[in-house]
């Protein structure tokens, strides 16, 4: 944390500000803490995230948690991107504690990411922590690197999808998932 704060102190200096100015005195420490938090996904495992919250259940119909908000950092510019994740799966004898789906989202969002990989990692993680007949994930994202700099498009949104198991080759299942999250 001290090293990170020192890096931020230097950044403040390099951009032409005075790190000893009263308003900026504690900024390096605050910014370090904020970045540490926003990248906390590197310092937790999937197992720690899910714990023991896998339960027996014979329900086989699709389970969906939709509109889980996330904040991530684009790996190209280290600027935020954010939006909503919807996760669905087909249970096969076991179900996952609902909050754990949201915790899995945070586990992979709080890293340097591209939206496509975030989508894929969430999909694979759900399939890893419980038996399923398939997992589907859809993410919407607004990227500050496309809004506040660069191409400066304020209204574009990115949608990404990942599937596994029966979702990969059953258009009706995909359609059911997409209809439920709309
Ligand atoms: N596929 C994908 N691209 C992303 C994501 N986040 C940012 N990018 C893109 O990463 C690309 C990096 O392109 P470069 O040409 O190397 O960088 P740049 O000169 O800053 O590009 P501009 O943003 O076009 O100014 C840009 O097109 C960004 O829009 C993401 O989650 N997924
Ligand atoms: Zn970017």
From TrEMBL:
The family database entries (Pfam families) matched by this protein are listed as:
GTP_cyclohydroI (PF01227)
User: What one GO molecular function would you report for this record?
Assistant: GTP binding
Q: Where are the transmembrane segments?
A: none
EC number in record: 3.5.4.16
Name the pathway.
Cofactor biosynthesis; 7,8-dihydroneopterin triphosphate biosynthesis; 7,8-dihydroneopterin triphosphate from GTP: step 1/1
Binding-site residues, Zn(2+): 74, 77, 145
Which InterPro entries has this protein been placed in? GTP-CH-I_C/QueF, GTP-CH-I_N, GTP_CycHdrlase_I, GTP_CycHdrlase_I_CS, GTP_CycHdrlase_I_dom
Tell me where in this chain the GTP cyclohydrolase I domain is found: 6-181
Q: Which reaction does it catalyse?
A: GTP + H2O = 7,8-dihydroneopterin 3'-triphosphate + formate + H(+)
Q: Which GO terms describe its cellular component?
A: cytoplasm
GO BP annotations of the record are: one-carbon metabolic process; tetrahydrobiopterin biosynthetic process; tetrahydrofolate biosynthetic process
User: Which keywords label this protein?
Assistant: GTP-binding, Hydrolase, Metal-binding, Nucleotide-binding, One-carbon metabolism, Zinc
Gene3D superfamilies, per the entry: 1.10.286.10, 3.30.1130.10
Please state which protein family the record places this protein in.
Belongs to the GTP cyclohydrolase I family.
Quaternary state and interactors? Homopolymer.
Name this protein carries in UniProt: GTP cyclohydrolase 1
**Annotated organism of origin:** Paramuribaculum intestinale
Q: Which gene encodes it?
A: folE
């Amino acid at each position: 944390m001290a090293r990170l704060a020192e890096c931020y102190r230097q950044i403040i200096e390099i951009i032409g500000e005075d790190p000893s100015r009263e308003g900026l005195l504690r900024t390096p420490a605050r910014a370090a803490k904020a970045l540490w938090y926003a990248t906390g996904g590197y310092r937790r495992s999937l197992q720690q995230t899910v714990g023991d919250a896998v339960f027996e259940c014979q329900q086989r119909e699709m389970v969906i948690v939709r509109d889980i908000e996330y904040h991530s950092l684009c790996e190209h510019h280290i600027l935020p991107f954010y939006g909503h994740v919807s996760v669905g799966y087909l249970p096969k004898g076991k179900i996952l504690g609902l909050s754990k789906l949201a915790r899995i989202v945070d586990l992979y969002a709080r890293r340097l990411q591209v939206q496509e990989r975030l989508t894929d990692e969430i999909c694979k993680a759900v399939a890893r922590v419980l038996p399923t007949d398939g997992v589907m994930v859809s993410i919407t994202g607004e990227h500050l690197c496309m809004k506040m700099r660069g191409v400066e498009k304020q209204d574009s949104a990115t949608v990404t999808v990942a599937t596994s198991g029966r979702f990969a080759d059953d258009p009706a299942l995909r359609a059911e998932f997409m209809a439920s999250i709309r």
